[in-house]
Design a protein that fits this description.
Structural class: mainly alpha
Strand content: under 5%
Shape: globular
Number of strands: 0
Order of helices and strands: HHHHH
Largest sheet: none
Length: 118
């Protein structure tokens, strides 16, 4: 394979990271799972998912992340959306503050998404 063909293939492999790319749900879910498993630190995993899947709404990202991170089992989908917002806006210190606050708060009933396991 020549250099030009290798460059084209590399571009195709990374196309999902480019602005405006619309991934098939199954592909996005597979990538989110890979990132969640690869990063043992919750903050790092959520930051990686959020940075690489900005085209997806945060409520969908939260539901997907929650499926693959056992350390989020005690949190509601709404809590995970708050954590994503904290990761994006507040960095590590903001994320830790929301994590502490949400861990101590009383939990509500089932989420608004009937297809999401809580």
């Amino acid at each position: 394979m020549d250099d030009a063909a290798q460059d084209d293939r590399a571009e195709d492999d990374l196309a999902w990271l480019l602005p405006g790319y619309r991934a098939a749900p199954a592909d996005a879910l597979r990538r989110i799972q890979t990132l969640c498993v690869a990063w043992p630190d919750l903050h790092a995993a959520m930051l990686a998912v959020l940075a690489t899947h900005q085209e997806l709404p945060r409520d969908m990202l939260a539901a997907a992340i929650k499926q693959f991170r056992p350390d989020l089992a005690a949190y509601t989908a709404e809590d995970v959306v708050s954590l994503l917002t904290a990761v994006w806006n507040g960095g590590k210190s903001g994320f830790d503050a929301v994590l502490r606050t949400r861990a101590a708060s009383p939990k509500k009933g089932a989420g608004a998404f009937s297809w999401v396991k809580e």
